[in-house]
Amino acid sequence: MNRLLRLASVGIALAAVLGLMLPVKAFSAEEIKIGVIYPLTGGAAAAGRELRAGAELAAEIANGVMADLPMTMAKNGGIKAMGGAKINLIFKDHEGNPTVGADLAKKLILDDKVHGILGCYHSSVTKTVSAVCEQYGVPMINGSSTSPDLTMRGFKWFWRTTPHDKWFTKDLFELLKGLTEGKVKGVKAVPKKDIEVLAAACENTEWGSLVTEMIKLFAGEYEFKLRKTLLYADKATDLSSEVRSLKAAKPDVMLFASYTSDAILMLKTLKAEKAGPKIIWGQDAGFETPEFRNTLGDDIVGILTRTVFLPQVVEVKKVAGQVNRMYKAKTGNDLSGASARSFTGLQTWVHVIEKAGSTVPAEIQKAANAIEIPGDELVVPWAGVKFSTTGDELGQNVLGSGLIGQYQKAKDGKVALEIVYPFDVVTADMVYPFPGW
Amino acid sequence: MDLLLGSIAAGIVLGMVIALVALGLTIIFGVMEIVNFAHGEFLMVGMYTGLLTAQATGTDPIFTLPVAAIVGFLLGVICYAGFIKFLIRGPMVAQLLGTFGLMLFLRNLALLIFGSSDRTVHHGILVGKSFDIGMGIILPATKAAAAGLSVIAFLAVWLLMNRTKIGKALTATALNAQAARYMGIPTEKMNALAWGIGGGSVTVAGALIVNFWAVNPFMGLLFTMIAFTVVALGGFGSVPGAFFAGLVVGLIMEIPGFWDFFTYTFDWPWMADVPMTSLKYMWIYVAYFVITVIRPRGLFGWKH
């Protein structure tokens, strides 16, 4: 009997110890579920693949331990403050459709019970998805939508790491102004009347419409003549009447905001219609995708695009070079504006959760508003990540910045982007005027 | 002036391409009085056929036309024999909904097989080349080829309908199927033939169009609507009508170009702010509406 009692007490003691251990074990095994909503099919599917790969790579780094990578998240093997909890990404495809995006966000929040959302590339989709997140009080970080409007709505659950189009468009006009003042490397001062007349064609969703507004705003401010602006459907099968309308305005500078397939179609149509402005500038997105480069080949030499990341950044930033090698091993491509910003978006998520040390929305909100990631942790050439918490813009990263690149032919015959703006980090002489087709 | 001439030329070339798209629709309607809502999807099938054949065999997309013609002919005949034949026994509503169902079926089949991404031809003899004729007229080689083939296709169909026995049999079937049957004309075969020719002509159009327009599973409806307008304007069932109506619709689609001409000729800045290119398809539907109200049988209509 005594023996039996002793056995029983040992058993009870064991059970108690196990019981104590169980919650700890459950806690360390907890995973952080982030819903990632990107355009994995449709016109922007090529960008979607890069966005996905960028986020996946960031998650792999955060969940593993990579001693030689100078990033805080590479050292912790998960979220340190939560006992090494792993990041689990749940990908959804919004097809570029704002309604689909909002439905997916609801599903992720209600069914998958995600702790936060990352996405969505298209500003129009980010708009509806962030509205859903705001309604349910679920934090959302956006890494790659650049419509200025998004952070001007006073949302409390929305943070954006990328700089937006107001900054980028201003960069363009600074470059044009620099051209007239002889500040551009490799180009003598251009008389203003040579590049004075502008025409713009932007896709007609949220993003393109707002880029048009920004172009109008700065054309006035910098005293350029914007003779034609038009919006087109990004799913258009034919853009020839749009291109002829642009040509009719006889612009010196043509400005575009396009997603992938429409950017390619636009350029092909410009070539077919023999349009020959002095400068062609694209507002990133389609103009920066590998598909754009691979499809159009030498035809894009001389075209400018604003961007946030170029392979040349790798030469300046060691950490970008290391991540780029891993990305290339994973996908076969170099990091681009889409993948680098998606990477940074998820990296910011990891930092926020680490700081919050919890998945409670209010804690995450507090952490996001207080976070400060130094620039040397990032692959993108920014001063860091720090969100504004006061003023007109809530949740906008105030430490971001943009680049303007130009497609040029390297000695090995490959067409690649060189930095032509800002003037203090240029990597090549600018080709001016646009050499034609 | 360059603007005006350029727009007229572009409108005419586009019109010929559109006429080719509409040709199959008018043949099928002419013979069987059935409206094929899946017409745009046939075009899509032609575009995918051209694109994939070119990619698979490494040939130029322009040489894939015979393949597209055969695929289209078979598609037309199979649709008729397997589906439409049973449908025409029902009321008009059943025919409408039936071909509408066919449209949804083909579209979703394409979505399943090809995914929703846009696909385009990037290389080819004609791709990316264009002729600068002067006076503002620039003809992309791909569109010029499509326009040329359109003329040939129309001539061929017109000759077939008016100068051959088969054509007479088709016309007889169209005018009075019962009487034609009494005369020993195999009307069933004639119907199948109409679907074959209709399908073949539109897939050929697709294989040409894919040289300059992107294809995705959803693009069919836009072309169905444009083809409807052409056929309504030209008169349901009229082959020459479809051609001339195609030209008119092509010019209607160039309204933004004419608008620009007036904008810059008279230098009225307010005109430049009107988003005419965003409204380019609207004018087609306006035209469709006006025709159905003013002249329901169309310009060359001979039925009813």
Explain what this protein looks like in three dimensions:
- The complex is a heterodimer of chains A (437) and B (304).
- In chain A, strand 6 (197-203), helix 6 and strand 7 (225-232) form a beta-alpha-beta unit.
- Mean pLDDT of chain A is 87; it is low at 18-28.
- Chain A starts with a helix and ends in a 16-residue tail after the last strand.
- Chain A folds into 2 domains: 30-163 and 315-385, Response regulator (Rossmann fold); 166-307 and 403-425, Rossmann fold (3-Layer(aba) Sandwich).
- The longest helix of chain A has 28 residues, at 2-29.
- Chain A is globular.
- Chain A contains 13 helices and 14 strands.
- In chain A, helix 2 packs parallel to helix 12.
- Helix content of chain A is 42%, strand content 16%.
- In chain A, the strands form 3 sheets. A 7-stranded mixed beta sheet of chain A has the order 7-6-8-9-10-13-14, with helices on both faces. Chain A has a 5-stranded parallel beta sheet with strand order 2-1-3-4-5, with helices on both faces.
- Chain A is of the alpha/beta class.
- With 304 residues, chain B is mainly alpha-helical.
- Chain B has one domain (2-116, 124-294).
- Chain B contains 13 helices and 2 strands.
- Chain B has a two-stranded antiparallel sheet.
- In chain B, helix 1 runs antiparallel to helix 8 (187-209), helix 2 (39-57) packs antiparallel against helix 3 (65-87) and helix 2 (39-57) packs across helix 8.
- Chain B is globular, with a radius of gyration of 20 Å.
- Chain B starts with a helix and ends in a 10-residue tail after the last helix.
- The mean pLDDT of chain B is 87.
- The chains are: A alpha/beta (437), B mainly alpha (304).
- At the A-B interface, strand 7, helix 7 and helix 8 of A face helix 1 and helix 11 of B.
